[in-house]
Structures are given as structure tokens and as C-alpha cells.
Amino acid sequence: MDYETILTYQGYAKFFLTLFVFIIFYGYIYSIYKRDKRGERNYEDYSKLALDDDIDSKPLENKRNTL
What does DSSP assign to residue 51? Predict the structure, then answer.
């Protein structure tokens, strides 16, 4: 293989890798948006966690395993 062919393959690989990362990233953002609209999660509670981090603070979610 000559040098120009390797550079061509490298260019295509960078393009498709960037496209793949773009699709995964925006898919994740879209899923967060849809969950927030449906009311499955309230991310505003989690944003307050950095300000309210005392040991006496109430938990954000109850995660008890009831088996």
C-alpha cells in the first residue's frame, strides 16, 4: 500500500468514528430529554446534591430491595 491510500483510509476511519461518537452522544442526550419529559427522572434533585451534602440530608431516592 502506498502512503496516499493509507491516508485515505485514515481519513475515512476518522470520519466514521466521529460520526459514530456523534450518534451515540446525541442519542444519550435525547434519551435523557425523553425521560425528563415523561417524568421518569427529576434531574433537578441531583443538581442540588452538590449544595446539600450534609450527613443529615434526606436521600434523593429510596432504593430498598424488597425480595
Answer: T
